Amino acid sequence: MAPAEQDALAVREQLFHQRVRECIICALLFASLYILCHFIITHFKKHTDFAAVHDDEDAAVDRIALGLCTFTLAVALGAVLLLPFSIISNEVLLSFPQNYYIQWLNGSLVHGLWNLIFLFSNLSLVFLMPFAYFFTESEGFAGSKKGIMARVYETSVVLLLLTLLVLGMVWVASAIVSNDAASCQSLYDLWEYYLPYLYSCISLFGVLLLLLCTPFGLSTMFTVTGKLLVKPRLLEDLDEQLSCARLEEAAVSRRI
After folding, report:
1. Its topology with respect to the membrane (predicted)?
2. Is residue 202 part of a domain?
3. Taking phi first (over 0 means left), then psi (-120 to 50 degrees means alpha), and beta for anything else, what does residue 54 get?
4. Are 167 and 154 in contact (CB under 8 A)?
5. 125 and 147: one domain?
């Protein structure tokens, strides 16, 4: 084998091992986030009524919805922690540039995590969360056989109609804002333009909701904290307390 072929083969093998390592790291990170989110949701989730009567169908629906919600929360938590992870990994690489055991914290891993977070965020936002909501509310079409698949069919139809409605609204908004007729007629723009546009609009709505709810949350937090904590007595006047105690003692002695 020629030296050039050997070098090319070595480069391919190195890229293959790097890709496998990145997949393993991403899987471990997501598994850790999924387990953490599962404990968080099960801790705050209310016990349902069908859990007491042992309804297998409703219990299966609840488990599926719980899994979808846990997956979505894990993706959201990963999106929140991705920027600190990128900053910390960059600082670690700059601090220990020659360490072999931390070379996996490279730009390729962070870039792959960004792509996965963006993909799963759109998937959770567009499909998983609406599917979980409609799946828990569905009962199957009238006249159809009851069961899990009947609920899946009804949820899929409702979700398809909702998707067409949302895409139509986004298409109309894009047609109003932009005068380019070609961009409104291209199906390729569904992934390149409409989906990021929808994601940005919902993110903006979430930021506005956060700005609206943050003052009320802070005021409630300080109110609850003020009720739980004991106020300090550093600024109290001891002479006034002593005079009040003497007056109470004199009043009690006169009564006696």
Report:
1. Multi-pass membrane protein
2. no
3. left
4. no
5. no
Name the nearest CA neighbour of 153 among 140, 134, 162: 140
Range of the domain at 145: 140-177
The pTM of the full predicted model, rounded to 2 decimals, is 0.66
The residue type of 218 is L
Q: How many CA atoms lie within 13 A of 229 on its CB side?
A: 9
* pLDDT per position as a tens digit, 49-65: 444 445 677 788 888 88
Same domain? 88 vs 149: no
Q: Quick check: 102 and 92 in contact, CB under 8 A?
A: yes
CB 12 within 8 A of CB 45: no
Q: Rounded to an integer, what distance in angstroms lies between the CA atom of residue 59 and that of residue 57?
A: 5
Write the DSSP symbol of residue 142.
T
Q: Given the structure tokens 């003020």, which residue do they identify?
A: 226
**How is residue 226 written in tokens?**
């003020």
CB 195 within 8 A of CB 122: yes
Residue type, 21: R
Q: Which of 209, 18, 30 is nearest to 121 (CA)?
A: 30
